[in-house]
Amino acid sequence: MHLPALRAFALGITRDPVLADDLVQETLLKAWSKFHLFEQGTKLRSWLFTILRNSLRTIQRKRAREVADVDDVLAGRLATKPAQEGNLVLREVEAALAKLPVEQREVLWLVGAMGFSIEEAAETCGCATGTIKSRANRGRRALAALLGMKAGESIELTDRATLAVMAGQPGRSG
Amino acid sequence: MDEQITAMPDKNPAKSTGKTSGKNDAPTPREPVVDPVLQQQIDENLRLLYKECLKDDLSESLQLLVDRLRNGGKPS
């Protein structure tokens, strides 16, 4: 069952537990009602993640009509989120990830975190493998910049890294 | 519910060629590639983040929905 992975992906992308649950619920209901459209031979995992991704896009479009930028809303929730337990370094990574454009964020989640192949991520996102590679590369570069990471150095909780996460902007969208 | 749920092309249908046409995603010739060691470090942190998210319990409503679907019942 891909449910925990779907929930983790939704949470990772939105950083909003309520929205993540809504997305997974919508994904399950759509998959349930549209299962006849599932093409045998394609990966069920990709199909489910495509549904979830499309559902998120729909929600973002709806919210975009209400607010200027849904990412700002989500970032705002992050800013007011109570202090979490757990690894502080991971919190920095999480905060930096939230600053990336959603297209890069989802590719980093799929490829970097969840181990999707480039081809499977391309199938999931409905775009070319070159696009996935480009988004992954840009996303990793932006993360490294935000976290002040260099090859061979582990992430440390430094003022430099923290300030970079708090103030930094990803270089480019896309 | 009428939304298309098969893989939908972004703005870029060039799947078979591997070329990109979306203006934000088109790789530029001089775009620097992340150092492989750095990439490994970044991905390791992403994996840890993912594992952490996996630990989250499913909400009660979600679990209920799953149970209903598993039992072949119609979701309310």
From TrEMBL, chain A:
It comes from the Bacteria. Residues 2-65 form the RNA polymerase sigma-70 region domain. InterPro entries: RNA_pol_sigma-70-like, RNA_pol_sigma-70_dom, RNA_pol_sigma70_ECF_CS, RNA_pol_sigma70_r2, RNA_pol_sigma70_r4_t2, RNA_pol_sigma_r2, RNA_pol_sigma_r3/r4-like, WH-like_DNA-bd_sf. GO terms for molecular function: DNA binding; sigma factor activity. Pfam families: Sigma70_r2, Sigma70_r4_2. SUPFAM superfamilies: Sigma2 domain of RNA polymerase sigma factors, Sigma3 and sigma4 domains of RNA polymerase sigma factors. Residues 91-143 form the RNA polymerase sigma factor 70 region 4 type domain. Gene3D superfamilies: 1.10.1740.10, Winged helix-like DNA-binding domain superfamily/Winged helix DNA-binding domain. GO terms for biological process: DNA-templated transcription initiation. Keywords: DNA-binding, Sigma factor, Transcription, Transcription regulation. NCBIfam families: sigma70-ECF. Belongs to the sigma-70 factor family. ECF subfamily. This is RNA polymerase sigma factor. The gene is sigR_3.
UniProtKB/TrEMBL annotation, chain B:
Residues 14-23 have a biased composition (Polar residues). Residues 1-35 are annotated as: Disordered. This is Anti-sigma factor NepR domain-containing protein. It comes from Pseudogemmobacter humi.
